[in-house]
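Incident log entry.

Two folding requests arrived from the same account within the same minute. Monitoring flagged them as a possible duplicate submission, but the sequences differ. Recording both here for audit purposes.

Request one:
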Amino acid sequence: MLLGPSKAGRPYRPDEDDAISRCLRGDGDLAALASRLGRSLDALRLHAQHLALHRSTPRRRWADWEDAALREGYTSALPYAVIASQLTHRTIPPEAESISRRRGVGSQQASMTPSAQGP
């Protein structure tokens, strides 16, 4: 199903690039700049990466055993605090349920065998 052309934002002007650069190299407020430019904060961060001005903090990928612990805890109806205690090197925020969904351990997928989940 085709959805039509992407909704790419308007191109950045040189003065916007300069403002982003000044903001990131100083102690500027990127959120305020985003609002002033009529762009989202995420859009400014992404463009700053494109300009090699901003680098996201890399996050360690989840290991298979961590996925298994999360899936087991979820399917066993353990409280999130108990699951978090098994993953001591991970920060499990209050919105852990959304993490469970992103990791593919929701109610429908939790009952699937690894071979049924595909690559």
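Request two (distinct sequence, not a duplicate):
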Amino acid sequence: MSHDTKTSIAPMLSVRVGAKAVEFYKAAFGAVELFRIDAEDGAVVAQLSVDGAEFWVADVYVSLCQEKSTGVLGVLGRARVAMLQD
């Protein structure tokens, strides 16, 4: 690994109603969107940053997670970790 390489590990939160989750993190913690994709069905994948701490938020797909939503943002279906190397 060269010294010019930046490696990071960022959590990916799988939620129901990802667009609302993104807005929640922006309002509650001052998160900034670094990257976002909105699917035609309303699903979202977004990379956010809070004071330089990066994380991802993505809609969970019901076929992958059978838990029922019990809250405003829904149930955390899975936790994934993305390892990125620049």
